[in-house]
Amino acid sequence: MKKLFLYLLFAAPMIVQAQTLSIQQLWENANQNIIYQQNQLKTQIVEQELLELKTNRIPIFYIDANLQRNLIIPTTPVPAIAFDPSAQEGAIIPLKFATKWSSKAGVQVEWNIFDAKRKVEEQQKALEIQKSQLDQQLSLQTWKNDATLAYASIVLATEQYKLTQEDTKLYEEIVSITKERYDAGREPSANYITAQQELERHQIQLYESWSVLQEADQELRKYSNLDTTQYLTSNFEDIIQNLQNWDKTNYDIKTLEVDKSISELQLASVKRQLLPNLSFNGYLGEQYFSNELKLARTEEWYGNSFVNLALRIPLSGYFTTQPTVKKIALNRDLIDKQIQDITRNEEIENNQNNFKIVAVEKKIDSFKKIQALALQNKNEQQEAYKAGRILLTVYSDALKGYHKAKQDVWQAQYDLLKLLLN
Q1: Which residues contact 339 (CB under 8 A, 6 or more apart)?
Q2: Which domains does the chain have, with CATH numbers?
């Protein structure tokens, strides 16, 4: 039979060596889930993008070299008088101002000294990192929520399976007792048949509860490797106690607040586009001109160097940025409204949730009292049935009442757990 992962309220000494899994140990595996790791990689990517932006402040140096063969040397007509004062007026001389071979080699530098948008872009990228980190925290919160429910489902399914096992054993004993009485002529055939039918029903319930337990086991495997785990050690009370330190941050609001900050930076970026940009460009090297490819001839290399300081002042931006500024401002106002709406709804939902929690806690206390009374009644009816003082139907009703009382307690505890996770 397939290994099943049962939880134990108290671990027996003989199974201390078996590997167990508590709710705290399950939560410690949260950073191993795929969604978290994906968001972690996204954060690292945005961090590298910020580093890329910062490297733009550094001047760029590079070697610029080429070798060119002019297949057709262009001829340029020039006035002959420029070279011969005695030339006739209007006379033209065809001249060639290029050689068959030319080359260039040197070092060039480019430096964006002042970029009005650079600082804002870096700040915006830093906010994107913060937003990505919030996505990581949200994925952790969601994972822990789902994993906790999966863990609690096994706790609930295990309790139901164990109770069904106990009831099945009791009905096996009932069938045995009823058969002895029937064989001795002290029990009618109808009671014996009824006892056998009830046993079959409980065996069906046992199979169904086993199936539910297997399904819950597979669900928990989405969140933890259970290949070496044999016991879950946390019960409902343990889980609820650990939820006292639960992360209740509303990451939707946090993310919207970052989006609002990004909108404000975008607005600043549009305004800074109206500021001038200052850049520097320089070159230091030599150029080669010859009809023969003999680069070693130093006399055919000529110095070539320049520096360039460029100032770029936008003009049309003063007339074209107004729609963009208006759009960003409207988007910022929209985010404000969304934050207000979520905050208001969250406050109402929290109040509703708190009322439900109080009601469920009182319900659990009452269900536990009912369970204690149902257990007392079951034990009394069991003794009475064994003594032959009551009918099987009366004892069966007592068993069903006890079964339902325990299920009511477990279901209420599970409902409380879901409310706390909210």
Answers
A1: 253, 256, 257, 260
A2: 6-56+115-276+313-421 (1.20.1600.10)
